[in-house]
From TrEMBL:
Keyword Endoplasmic reticulum among UniProt keywords: no
Reaction equations catalysed: a quinone + NADH + 5 H(+)(in) = a quinol + NAD(+) + 4 H(+)(out)
Transmembrane segment boundaries: 12-35, 66-87, 93-116
Gene Ontology molecular function terms on file: NADH dehydrogenase (quinone) (non-electrogenic) activity; NADH dehydrogenase (ubiquinone) activity; quinone binding
Gene that specifies this protein: nuoA
Keywords: Cell inner membrane, Cell membrane, Membrane, NAD, Quinone, Translocase, Transmembrane, Transmembrane helix, Transport, Ubiquinone
Quaternary assembly: NDH-1 is composed of 13 different subunits. Subunits NuoA, H, J, K, L, M, N constitute the membrane sector of the complex.
Membrane topology, as annotated: Multi-pass membrane protein
Name the UniProt record assigns to this protein: NADH-quinone oxidoreductase subunit A
EC number(s) per entry: 7.1.1.-
Membership in a protein family: Belongs to the complex I subunit 3 family.
HAMAP family (alphabetical): NDH1_NuoA (MF_01394)
Organism (species): Sodalis ligni
Function description: NDH-1 shuttles electrons from NADH, via FMN and iron-sulfur (Fe-S) centers, to quinones in the respiratory chain. The immediate electron acceptor for the enzyme in this species is believed to be ubiquinone. Couples the redox reaction to proton translocation (for every two electrons transferred, four hydrogen ions are translocated across the cytoplasmic membrane), and thus conserves the redox energy in a proton gradient.
GO cellular component: NADH dehydrogenase complex; plasma membrane
Amino acid sequence: MSITTEVTAHYWALAVFFVGAAGLCCFMLSGGYLLGGKAHARSKNVPFESGIDPVGTARLRLSAKYYLVAMFFVIFDVEALYLYAWSTSIREVGWGGFCEAAVFILVLLAGLVYLVRIGALDWTPERSLRLRRSGPIAENQRRQP
């Protein structure tokens, strides 16, 4: 088989793949449009959450700490995936791979210790911690033996 025939066959397969993927997307979108409900009512656009009518507004203001903790979770979760992939190939990588994974874990542990030390993982702000320590509940707990 000549080189031009191989290249043409390769690009032909790629073109069939892209046309098939685009066709499947169009089919699913048009199928949902054609088979979906056509009724329009006032309650049609109201969100339905687990069988309960929604209460309050969706414009909930969250602290920046929430997003910070979420980013830390994602970072450490991705690192756990790397360690899982390493653990599946432990026999192939040998002691060199073990030493590299140990260094990787130590760097992660150092990062986690640093985050704890600077208070990045504290959910409550300093003001509420001070109030909790000096509030009336704390005084009642001090009086009880």
